[in-house]
Amino acid sequence: MAGISFRNVTKRFGKTVALKNASFDIQPGEFFCFFGPPLSGKSTVLKLILGLETPDEGEVLIGGWPVNHVSPADRNVAMVFQNLALFPHMTAGENVRFPLTERKIAEDKIRARVEAVSAKLHIAHLLHKPPAQLSGGERQRVAIARALVRDPVAYLMDDPISALDARLREETRVELKRIQRDRGQTLIYVTHDQEEAMSVADRIAIMEHGEIRQVGAPGEIYDTPVSRYVARLLGAPMMNIMSAVRGDGVKAADGTITLPIDAVPADVSEIGVRPEDLKVEPWSAAHAGRPAKVYEVEPLGGYTVVTVDTGAEKLKALMRGQPDIRIDSAVALSCNPARAHFFNQAGEALGL
Amino acid sequence: MKRSLPFEVFRYAAIFLALAVTLVPTLWMVSMAFKPIAEWSATGADLTWWPKAPTLDNFRFILGTSTSDLIVALDRTAGKPILASLLSAVFGTLIAMTAGTAGAYGLSRFGSGQNLPLALIQLRLFPPMAVMIPVMIMWAFFGLVDTWWGLALIYGIVTLPFAFWLMKTFFDDMPREIEDAALVEGCSRMRVFLKITLPMMRPALASSALFVFILNWSDYLIALLLTTREWVTIPVYMASLSSSMTGQLYGAKAALGLIAAVPPVIMGIAIQKHLVRGLTFGALKQ
Questions:
Q1: Phi, psi at residue A318, to the nearest 5°?
Q2: What's the DSSP call for residue A238?
Q3: Which residues have C-beta within 8 Å of that of residue A322, sequence separation ≥ 6?
Q4: Cβ–Cβ below 8 Å for B285 and A136
Q5: Which of A326-335, B80-89, B113-122 bottoms out in mean pLDDT, i.e. has the lowest?
Q6: Which of A124, A148, A241, A342 would you label with A181, given CA atoms 20 to 30 Å apart?
Q7: 8 Å CB contact of A86 and B282
Q8: Measured between alpha carbons, how far is A256 from A212 in angstroms, rounded to an integer?
């Protein structure tokens, strides 16, 4: 178990900058998640930790030691690759024991370790088969077993469960978190699924264009995103972003929402409201401003997604239960200014 | 899909025609190999697909166990040429495959030797005759003329580009993550190549080797120029099967041709199951 740190690490491939001046510290025993759209530099971070790539600038530290010139084999980091990368000419069992036989571990120890890990991942009955004869989910578990079989300083996983169907993914996700907590191991996880990132990670690093935009606990990033980009990346449905106009109050979304002027920072350009913070009520004479129109209602049982058309934008509201709201009816929108997010022209978050 | 009748007729005619071009000469050779001398150049009604009096005389003749009624006596049998062909083609293939695989791996993985592809193919850019004259002189200087190893060496060199190009496409298609995984799990670079890459490449190696072997096996020109007596190969030997009395010894040639067809066919059958199987079958998610 060891922490992993980057100190101003930059990596270029030809002219493209895959990772730009990245610095972070992953604590020992932490479940750390890199999250961002494709090609945002997530996989490059993993390759730099593994030693499959060498940084152009800066330093990679594992357990406090610089490892820029240490070979992948000597870094003692385990990895589950995105495409699994099983060895097709070996059986599942040979795949799982490979990391141990390569390190010349005694045969009785190998047998015990393989037995333990295959019991935990329910693959004991598959070990004699070649990967070609396994289903997608089984291959996934074999690949994870190959990483878990030894005792590395950290586990790295590059979107390891993306090939599974939704239900199996949720199960595997819970299982992974459980195994990680039991072992108290450092686990670095890369995903492009925001729900997965939020649910498993102790801390998340949000990436964009090879840069780390924000690092923090999932709840912290969700509640206080540093930019519009980060705000839109976490949460489903996405945060509503409306352009703001200052008058006697601050009007947003074509005047359908009005916030008191002293609750809004001066140079605000856009206001963001999470769907669960957007309040939708039937329109009555008592309401000021302008009404919005209900565009679509999606009842999901426990809650309902209501899309409203303000004329300028379409906003989504998440409402508890199954509210009695009809399509095309006029509604009044409001939100608690304390729950609203404010962004300037550049998309940076503003505080009061 | 339902096709119109004229189209179907045309389709089968085209298939038959394409097959006829390759099958008729082959079948004729098989038939000829078993025909006695009287039937070799029969005409009219005597010209049949099936030998009227099937015989193994042609085989006995070239293998030197009998001169039967051919009257002519051969100055040598087919035994040594078959050995010469086997030795030169097998070792030539080994040379080409070893060097080609190593070069292709280096270029595919590490980008080393960017000019290698062109450099390798330059022997093929010129008419063979133009290249072979200097080779003859060099081989004579090194004492390699009329030896099977001298022939194997030049076979290895001229088929190297094919081995290289074929293996390069296979290496390019192999997912790098599989090698990365082995590196991370404790292998050195060399060990990754020997334990992971080469075993995975077995089907690719087999099909490339077959292709290269067939090229070497069927060479006539190089062997004609670089061998004189001792290590003449099958094609060169075959050309000498004629006599002033009987002209071309068609039956003997056909018998030798049939023997020459055996090694590539056996190799092809042996690796057939590799040819249809994908390289990385089962390694990846889907």
A1: -105, 120
A2: P
A3: A299, A301, A304
A4: yes
A5: B113-122
A6: A124
A7: yes
A8: 35
Predicted-complex ipTM score: 0.80
Residues whose CB is less than 8 angstroms from the CB of residue A66 and which lie 6 or more positions away in sequence, other chains included: A59, A60
DSSP secondary structure letters along chain B: ----HHHHHHHHHHHHHHHHHHHHHHHHHHHHHT--HHHHT--GGG--SS-SS--SHHHHHHTTS--TT-----SS-SHHHHHHHHHHHHHHHHHHHHHHHHHHHHHHHH---TTHHHHHHHHHHS-HHHHHHHHHHHHHHTT-TT-HHHHHHHHHHHHHHHHHHHHHHHHHHS-HHHHHHHHHTT--HHHHIIIIIHHHTHHHHHHHHHHHHHHHHT--HHHHHH-SSTT--HHHHHHT-EETTTEE-HHHHHHHHHHHHHHHHHHHHHTHHHHHS-SSTTTS--
Tokens of A135: 């289903």
Chain-centre distance for alpha carbon A136: 23
B54 touches chain A (CB under 8 A): no
| Token pair listed for B238 | 């075959």
What is the 8-class DSSP label of residue A41? S
Give the residue numbers in A contacting B (CB under 8 Å), as ranges: 50-52, 71-73, 75, 77-79, 81-89, 98-99, 102-103, 130-134, 136, 139-140, 146, 163
A206: closest CA among A233, A228, A224? A233
> Residue A312 in contact with residue A241, Cβ under 8 Å?
no
**Strands A57-62, A349-350: pairing kind:** unpaired
The owner of tokens 């980008």 is B111
Residue type, A85: A
Both tokens of B123, joined, read 């022997």
CA-nearest of A30, A34, A19 to A192 is A34
pLDDT tens per residue, range A70-109: 999 899 999 999 888 899 889 999 999 999 998 888 999 9
- B21 alpha carbon, distance to own chain's centre: 20
Residue at A227: amino acid letter: S
- Determine, for residues A83 and B186 on separate chains, whether the beta-carbon distance falls below 8 Å: no
Q: Report yes or no: B33 at the A interface, CB cutoff 8 Å.
A: no
Measured N-to-C along each axis, helices B250-270 and B5-33 cross at an angle, to the nearest 10 degrees, of 120
Q: Do B281 and A146 touch (CB under 8 A)?
A: no
Report the C-alpha gap between A156 and A188 in whole angstroms: 5
The residue written with tokens 């190696």 in the block is B205
Compare all CA atoms of chain B with the CA of A150 and give the residue at the minimum distance: B185
- The model's pTM is 0.78
Q: For B99-152, write each residue's pLDDT tens digit.
A: 999 999 999 988 877 787 778 777 777 887 888 888 999 999 999 999 999 999
DSSP lists the bridge partners of residue A126 as none
CB A227 within 8 A of CB A242: no
